[in-house]
Amino acid sequence: MGGMLGLATYGGRVNAIAPDATASAHRAAIFDLACSTGWLDPKEAAQNLAWMRAFHADLSPPPAESPRPATPATAP
What we know:
20% helix, alpha+beta, two-stranded antiparallel ribbon, 1 helix
């Protein structure tokens, strides 16, 4: 049948109210991302799932290796 990418934003005016005044303490821009696929004929399952997995992989490449934090110096 096909696939879909959906974006849903919420939060209204970002940082307009205190973080502890709402159920969501996160005060930066917020959105949900949903990827879905479907099929009517079971024979199409593998093709549709492969397409969606490849699409999702393009959306979220593996994270770059982060540098290790410096080890704090210890007092003598």
